[in-house]
Amino acid sequence: MAASFTRRHWLQGLAAVGSCTVAPALRAADDVGNAIRIGRVLPYGVPAFASMARQRAQGADACMAHTNASGGIAGQRIVVLDRDDGYDTARAARETQSLLSQDGVFALLGAFGTPTVPAVIEVAERMGAPLVGASSIANDARQPPRRWIFPVRVSAIEEAAATVRHQMTLGAQRFMVLTSREAYGPSGAAAYTSALHRAGRKFGELAFEASDDAKRVAAQLLQARPEVIFISVLPKPFAGVLRAYRGGGGAARIFGLSVIRAEDLRAELGPLAVGIGLSQPVPAPTSPTSALAGEYRAHLARLDPAAQPSFHGLEGYLEARVLVEGLRRAGPRATREQLVRALESFRPLELGGLLVRYGAGDRTGSNFSELVMLGSGRSIVR
Asked: Distance between CA atoms of 377 and 159, rounded to whole angstroms?
């Protein structure tokens, strides 16, 4: 599956680069077709994350295709090589190593996943390759600052903190952190508990496994009587818990991190998804007032007229915009060191109304966080 996805998802209109083994790319232009090779490792073949991975990749590809159609980087086209990491730490390391040592990619783009991002970071640092976009609920990409790593989205800790502050302004006093024990659940719970500790608030914690009795978990929530529940959960097992909780009269407000896709919540919860709040690291992709969202929609429509804008797609687009601007500032046939220095010159960079900041020892990226509420159908209430 990984190989077929790789072949299908090279940017439209680009000639395929030969599959022969080459030395690691130290300069942006390689010797085959004067192209800049960019590597990307995402969990394309894992059902729980495949849609998210494809949305992010498609958003980035929309940016790259527009860049190529506009003359590329000083006449050099960008080619993206994709690999499936299987949401597995060891496999992510192998695929990243292969992209850099065998496929000769110049830089890496858009890694995400709690178990896989640390592996991609380790290989990128060891081989001296820039990675733009490193998204996980853990803060591995920012602390400590790493020379070759450039996270773009707001950190999950700050994302959670913004939601906690929002609820405090509404006078909420009783908080619960509800988490799945699988996948990103514990890391997301840690972001919320950190934010609540920093705010000096008391709270309860409840963790459950997908195999647990949903009614028992709901009964514990009902007994705790929270006003606000912060969730870091897998949507499918959470659906049973929420149905039992609402059925028992539970009325707490519910908020989650952006790692949870709105589409997945709607698919699993149906009408119960209405009113759930999700923090987001980018503006609403359908926003009529965001210049960044407008650019994304226009470029996405040119890439694939049938594609639907999404938050994760816009996040992938933003990461690609950051990389493209870094490549432009680095100049033609730049070295990796020159790309790092170019990215560190963003103090800050304004992209369609959103600011991205880096510097020597500074890997802030974006601080943007916005809370949205799920409405009926596919609507989003800001």
From this structure: 25
